[in-house]
């Protein structure tokens, strides 16, 4: 029977993803050959202590749980907006951990990011250098156009995070496209077709496929040294990945892009949610921590603050022997409104 919610927000890992119902007919994909998901420890950066901690301590609201499940059921990207410090990028790590989706693939967006960067990187110069080295070793130039030369393309090509997420894995991979609002104006529109179709082509491998017996190249996937098969330069997903795009609200997105996403807006946590967050990270909040939570909420009403500013202040209060007056002054410095210039006087 289908399971709702698949993602519960309790952080306890389980295999509920296997009970996800079939996709809507317009979101069904049939890529192959089917790949086994990588081991959770396959990508060393994805299992770094900070990312593991974020996954274990994330506290989801009821709205977050509902919309994550909507994205999973509908096989749609989840666009997560909200002020800085509300846990937008941490969400994908929590979902991947609970649903055992393997290492999170991450694509950090800048103003120079292009769709090509997310799909794959090909280095023709390294291939040219390798060909010259090979020719020098054999003391003769390698005839252009031979299959051995063309097949060398796969050794100089690596899939990007988006390109890897769209491989035909048997269960969804988790992909974070972080700060999509920092991108060039064209990137959201460029993503439309790939996210809608769940597939893409690698032209270099399409050309090389004509010169190989079965048209299969084995290329490196993002984040590991694992090689995966790509048949005739075409990649098509089987289980649509769990894609989280984050935005700090620095720009608006085209309607065509928005209608293809499930949108979640994260709000500032209230006192109860803040206490849960502190408890998850640092244990039961004591009296001084409760006081800092109250002060944090008061300051939030006058400007943007990030939850990790509060966590920093509570951590220092617990691990130092400073007096209350000094701690109060330090907390003021650790919780300035975002965008506010820092003071230079010392205490």
Overview in brief:
The chain is of the alpha/beta class.
Question: Any chance you could write out the topology, listing elements then pairs?
Answer:
Elements lengths: L48 H9 L4 H13 L3 E4 L8 H10 L5 E4 L6 H5 E3 L1 H15 L8 H4 L6 E3 L1 H5 L8 E5 L8 H11 L1 E3 L1 H7 L6 E5 L6 E5 L2 E3 L5 E6 L7 H4 L3 E4 L5 H12 L4 H14 L6 H13 L4 H11 L13
Parallel strand pairs: 1-10, 1-11, 2-5, 5-10
Antiparallel strand pairs: 3-4, 6-9, 7-8
Instruction: Tell me the CATH topology of the largest domain.
Output: Rossmann fold
The biggest beta sheet, please? 5 strands, parallel
Mean pLDDT: 88
Low-confidence blocks of residues: 142-151, 341-347
Provide the domain count.
Answer: 2
Q: Radius of gyration, rounded?
A: 24 Å
Identify the overall geometry.
elongated
Approximately how much helix is present in the residues?
25-40%
Which descriptors would you attach to this protein?
347 residues, alpha/beta, Rossmann fold, 2 domains, 5-stranded parallel β-sheet, two-stranded antiparallel sheet, disordered C terminus
